[in-house]
Design brief:
298 residues; alpha/beta; Rossmann fold; 10 helices; 11 strands; 32% helix; globular; disordered N terminus; binds adenosine-5'-triphosphate
């Protein structure tokens, strides 16, 4: 396994994995000074670790989907998960906000922290966790409701009843998803009447409306045409100013374009290399990663 497997790519000093399965990861505050892929304003400064895994194994019944994954993901960055089909990328994403809880066959060993809290502790409410860690899926999946009600959905569940507050929050989320100008005059129209790219931005608005800290995106552009995909890519860079974005993508050019850091999973669910995106694509440490990136397999 590569030495890069366990480190936070923002700081070589975190290369050693922390020990003790019940303790939060050390070195939570990390100095960064790295060259990264997407946005020069995020290339320097401090980055807290916001999500981390230590020795994470995930099984579906007897089949192991993730093997001993240790990783520290910094906040306000775009972190891409890449690797061939079936290597466990989506499983890892679903582990972060406990969406795997909904799969009866899924079983987890090891530790997964959101900030310094193990999300699998008994006192963690998965619904509350998912408010902090929102998710956007591969195919746009607006509810069969108005644009307004789609975005207001999570806020109403959270108990925001005041119409003025709701109006402001809906506008803020739609602006954050770069959709406001296109829909501000049709907020009562069905979300299903929007184009595919607009629907996906509506889903992003719905995900950010409750003001999460992390946005998980599972191949968010793979069902979209290139123009719509490009808009979402631009949006992702903006979203990382306010949120931490963790994105699964099959599109290596996309990972190279939009992410600051890249984690490469390979068959068997192992994280074989994790580093800043430029290093992964230009000078990977692991020959298997080089082979994957240059298209020799996967
Ligand atoms: N609900 C499930 N029940 C049983 N096995 C599953 C389930 N979901 C995933 N798996 C298995 O876990 C392994 C990892 O799957 P996962 O979807 O996480 O990989 P992936 O890298 O995201 O794949 P892809 O790129 O094709 O989406 C695969 O062998 C898959 O068949």
């Amino acid at each position: 396994m590569s030495k890069h497997t366990t480190h936070n790519p923002t700081d070589e000093s975190t290369a050693e994995a922390t020990s003790g399965s019940n303790s939060p990861p050390e070195n939570a505050l990390i100095e960064t000074d790295v060259t990264v892929g997407s946005d020069s304003s995020r290339t320097t400064g401090r980055a807290d670790t916001i999500v981390s895994a230590e020795g994470l194994d995930v099984y579906y019944d007897d089949d192991q989907a993730l093997t001993d994954v240790t990783i520290e993901i910094p906040e306000h960055r775009v972190t891409a998960m890449i690797g061939p089909s079936g290597c466990g990328k989506s499983t890892f994403l679903r582990s972060i906000n406990r969406m795997n809880d909904r799969i009866p066959a899924a079983r987890i060993d090891g530790d997964l922290y959101f900030r310094e809290k193990n999300v699998y502790d008994d006192d963690v409410d998965p619904v509350a966790l998912r408010r902090k860690i929102g998710q956007v899926f591969q195919s746009p999946n607006p509810f069969p409701k108005s644009i307004y009600d789609n975005v207001a959905y999570g806020l109403r569940i959270q108990g925001t009843a005041d119409e003025v507050d709701l109006d402001a929050a809906v506008e803020r989320a739609l602006r954050g998803a770069a959709l406001w100008d296109e829909v501000k005059d049709q907020l009562d129209s069905s979300g299903l009447d929007l184009s595919g790219g607009q629907q996906q931005r509506l889903c992003i608005a719905r995900a950010i409306a409750p003001d999460p800290e992390v946005l998980l995106m599972d191949e968010p552009t793979s069902a979209l045409d290139p123009v719509a995909a490009s808009k979402i890519e631009d949006l992702i860079a903006d979203l990382a100013e306010e949120y931490t974005v963790i994105i699964v993508t099959h599109n290596m050019q996309q990972a190279a374009r939009i992410s600051d850091n890249t984690a490469v999973f390979l068959t068997g669910g192992t994280l074989v290399e994790y580093d800043d995106t430029a290093t992964i694509f230009e000078n990977p440490a692991d020959d298997r990663v080089e082979d994957y990136i240059t298209g020799k397999f996967g």
